[in-house]
Amino acid sequence: MGDFKESCPPPTPKPCPPKACVEKDTERKNVTVEVSGKIKRQGPTILEQKEKSQGNSKTIWYPGFDARFPNQNQTRRCWQNYVDYFRCQEKFGEDYEGCEYFKKTYELLCPGFWIERWNEQRENGTFPYPRR
């Protein structure tokens, strides 16, 4: 127990590659990374890509959660909002802005061919509700 042996000295860190460098141009348009004389990556910076993508971004509207339709299948919600849109128009008139919520919701949730079929049924008087 009394014998204490000196431990080996810690290993020395490896030196960096001789030509490793990162060059950034002043306009921050391109980043060039060189390792041992070979170009690894060249292209727009992340900041530039973000600036470009912000110019093309669109705002996506989604109606959000409706407690009456908690399940993944939103078929009933689609139909209910279609019916509610026309009920709202009957009650408040066609120019009432509050009805647009129902229209945006059913247009988002319902397949287009369902809406076309329901519109045809309404014109023919065969859709269950509302009557024209």
From TrEMBL:
InterPro entries: COX6B-like, CX6/COA6-like_sf, Cyt_c_oxidase_su6B
Name the UniProt record assigns to this protein: Cytochrome c oxidase subunit 6B1
Keywords, in A-Z order: Disulfide bond, Mitochondrion
This protein's record includes keyword Cell inner membrane: no
Feature: compositional bias, Pro residues: 8-18
Transmembrane segments: none
This protein's GO CC annotations: mitochondrion; respiratory chain complex IV
Region spans: Disordered: 1-21
Compartmental location: Mitochondrion
Gene3D superfamilies (alphabetical): Cytochrome c oxidase, subunit VIb
Domain of life, per lineage: Eukaryota
Any matching Pfam family: COX6B
